[in-house]
Inverse folding.
């Protein structure tokens, strides 16, 4: 699959099958995350592969919309020292991981933790470390229900502006889709 095709066909999936996720399955995903760039080449982030029900359940309690994540076989938590937390770097690693998983036919979904004290405690992060998000990983369920949130993407003409936002008295600029 071409990189562009991988990007435009990737969807977040919460429903996974019972098929186990092996170390061999995870290796290319973790390598893809490792290869993401980082500010000043600092590489401060660490990944915690969470397989145990106990840890996944503790992580499920760390977010306002994460109650479902203990149903997925693997949760990969992203951690960083507080003084080097760069959410852009975390996002780059997460996106690399999710795109690699999609290319291999795996299901992923990013989750944000609103309660960093709980997410850090769930993975026994050292003092001074934050765990702001995770990515769930599994094999897609064959009978997964369609998302109730399915919708068309915002059109490019609405998404993209040249130099500045258009003013109320200006006609919108449309871009070719």
């Amino acid at each position: 699959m071409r990189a562009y095709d991988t990007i435009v066909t990737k969807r977040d999936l919460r429903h996974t099958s019972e098929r186990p996720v092996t170390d061999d399955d995870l290796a290319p995903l973790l390598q893809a995350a490792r290869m993401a760039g980082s500010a000043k080449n600092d590489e401060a982030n660490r990944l915690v592969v969470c397989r145990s029900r106990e840890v996944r359940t503790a992580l499920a309690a760390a977010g306002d919309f994460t109650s479902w994540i203990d149903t997925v076989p693997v949760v990969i938590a992203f951690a960083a020292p507080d003084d080097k937390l760069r959410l852009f770097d975390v996002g780059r690693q997460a996106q690399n991981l999710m795109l690699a998983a999609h290319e291999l036919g795996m299901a992923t979904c990013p989750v944000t933790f609103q309660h960093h004290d709980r997410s850090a405690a769930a993975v026994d992060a050292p003092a001074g470390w934050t765990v702001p998000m995770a990515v769930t990983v599994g094999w897609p369920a064959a009978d997964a229900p369609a998302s109730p949130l399915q919708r068309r993407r915002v059109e490019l003409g609405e998404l993209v502006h040249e130099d500045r936002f258009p003013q109320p008295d200006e006609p919108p600029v449309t871009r070719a889709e």
Q: What stands out?
A: The mean pLDDT is 90. Residues 87-103 form the longest helix (17 residues). The chain is about 30% helix and 15% strand. The chain has one domain: 3-144.
